[in-house]
Specification:
The protein has 112 residues and is an all-alpha fold. 80% of the residues lie in helices and 0% in strands. The mean pLDDT is 93.
């Protein structure tokens, strides 16, 4: 279970880290630039918060909290894509939501 939790957290963190860096470097002009920059910074910080606290063992409660925040972020992203009728992206949102939820619940309930 521990290995699956780390794999799920690693995938979520990697995808959001890359997405956050992309949002900082390039504008896709779908949302206001300030909002895009804020989302990028939050994704990068969340990626760090998902992995680092568990590795160093300090404030380890931040990792499941970051995972739950990514669940909320992905639900918002899914709503954004549904409103724009971008249904091809929804499987990615659902997968990332499931992985983040699995990581959060496994760290909260099973893995210490």
């Amino acid at each position: 279970m521990l290995i699956l939790t780390w794999v799920a957290a690693g995938v979520v963190a990697t995808v959001h880290l890359i997405s956050g860096i992309n949002k900082l470097l390039r504008s896709n002009q779908l949302i206001p630039r300030r909002s895009e920059l804020s989302l990028g910074v939050l994704e990068i910080l969340g990626s760090i918060g998902l992995i680092v606290p568990k590795i160093v063992g300090i404030a380890a409660w931040l990792a499941p909290l970051a995972a739950l925040c990514f669940v909320v972020l992905q639900i918002g992203a899914g709503i954004f894509h549904i409103r724009r009728k971008e249904f091809r992206v929804l499987p990615i949102n659902c997968t990332l939501t499931a992985l983040a939820l699995f990581a959060a619940l496994s760290w909260l309930l099973w893995v210490r």
